[in-house]
Structure formats: structure tokens, C-alpha cells
């Protein structure tokens, strides 16, 4: 299975969910050779409930993933924590939405949940918890207490950071952190816009029906990360187009 563990289906937090944009993103993912994604839309995006509410109406699925003509969309979200990092939480949809409801008082800056408390919500519910872009200057995690960092199921080798920090430079930061703590590293494109889709992804043997199965495969060392030779161009193009589209969409009446 070729899968991206950090994937957005909205252009930005301020825009509404659009099936047209969703379908464009998924079409590109399939064209790039992916068979699955983990949907990690921001937990405090505008009208978060519309994302999964719309997909419930538009796509067949179970409590673990939606099926779009054989392409799997595993359920998840990206959560801001008080320490400043971004956390990728994925797992059964009912448990995910329960956690999201509990996070409602913590959606604004200044009220974000602490990382330890987030683990306490996620671990009993069987979620996979990935530390997003741990060395990003604006939202890093490397400074957090090592015992907390060891609780992650994986760290995110992030497409945007590979571009901005440098491919070899970012690898030289993230992989040693994972090795030091005994935490695997997986790739995530962090795509919000189609040009960034496929800049990085993961190859796992076989097929998977649940996030728990994915987590077990990652822990077993079965995950191979792939970095596109056109990563820099893809991320630059996506950033330029995203700025133009956000400017257009966010000024329109809502």
C-alpha cells in the first residue's frame, strides 16, 4: 500500500469544505500512485464537522476509512498542543470524533491542550499518534520532554519541511531523533493543494483495513519512505497557487 500519513482536503482553515477540491486532491493522489491517505484536517478548521459529515453522505465507508472507488481515506485530524507542536491523530472514526468533541474547549491559541493530556485521550481509544514536523521553526516538538516524545507512534518526515529546511538537512534532524527515542519515522506530504500531493509518501507491504494494522506495520519496521525527485518544485508550486487561491476564496462572502 502506498499511503500519505499527513494529508489535508481543505485549502486552508478559513475555507469551507468542498467536494470538488476533495476530489481534485484524491484524483491527484491516485495519479501519483497512492492507494490511501490518512485525512488529517486541522481540528480547529472552519466547520470541522462538515468534513466528516459530508463524506458520510457522499462516500461508502466503515468506522475506519471511506472508500472512493477503491482508494482508502483513513480518518484522522491534526491537533495543536500547548507546547506548540502539531499532532496527527488517526483511528476509528467514532473514537476520533469523541476526542474532537472533548477538544472543543481547546481550539483557540492560549487554550490548546497539553501533549500529555492529549495522549491520555488518544491511547485508551487505540489511536495512532504521530508527531508532526518535529523541527519546523514555527511548530516544533524536539524541545518537549523525552519521555513524552517516546509515546509517539511515529514522527513525521514532512514534505514542506524537506523543502524549507532542506532534504538532507531535515532527514539529519528527524531520523536521529527517532533513532534516539525508538520512534519510527513516516513521511507526510502536508498537502493542502494538488501540486504538493505525492512529494513524499510511504510504501507498506500488503493491504490494511484499520489504522491499528497500519500502526503495527510501522512499529514492525515495514514502512519505506519515498521522496519525489521533484519535491522542491512541487512544494514551491503548491505554495504559490495556494496563496493565490486563498486570497480569492477568503475574500468572498461566506
Describe the protein's architecture and organization.
The model has no long low-confidence stretch (mean pLDDT 95). The chain is globular. The relative contact order is 0.16. It is of the alpha/beta class. The protein has one domain: Metal-dependent hydrolases (TIM Barrel, Alpha-Beta Barrel). Strands 1, 2, 3, 4, 5, 6, 7, 8, 9 and 10 form a ten-stranded mixed beta sheet that branches. The protein is built from nine helices and ten strands.
As residue ranges, the low-confidence spans are: none
Decide which structural class fits the backbone: alpha/beta
**What is the level 1 CATH name?**
Alpha Beta
- Indicate the percent of residues in helices: 25-40%
| Average residue-wise pLDDT | 95
How many strands, which pairing sense, and closed or not: the largest β-sheet? Answer: 10 strands, mixed
Q: Strand-residue fraction?
A: 15-25%
Oligomer: single chain
Write the layout of secondary structure elements.
Layout: E1 2-7, H1 19-31, E2 36-39, H2 48-58, E3 65-68, E4 71-80, E5 86-90, H3 93-102, H4 115-122, E6 128-131, H5 146-149, E7 154-158, H6 159-164, H7 167-181, E8 185-188, E9 200-203, H8 211-219, E10 224-227, H9 231-250
Parallel strand pairs: 1-2, 2-4, 6-7, 7-8
Antiparallel strand pairs: 1-9, 3-4, 4-5, 5-6, 9-10
Protein name: Histidinol-phosphatase
Domain PHP: 4-84
GO molecular function: catalytic activity
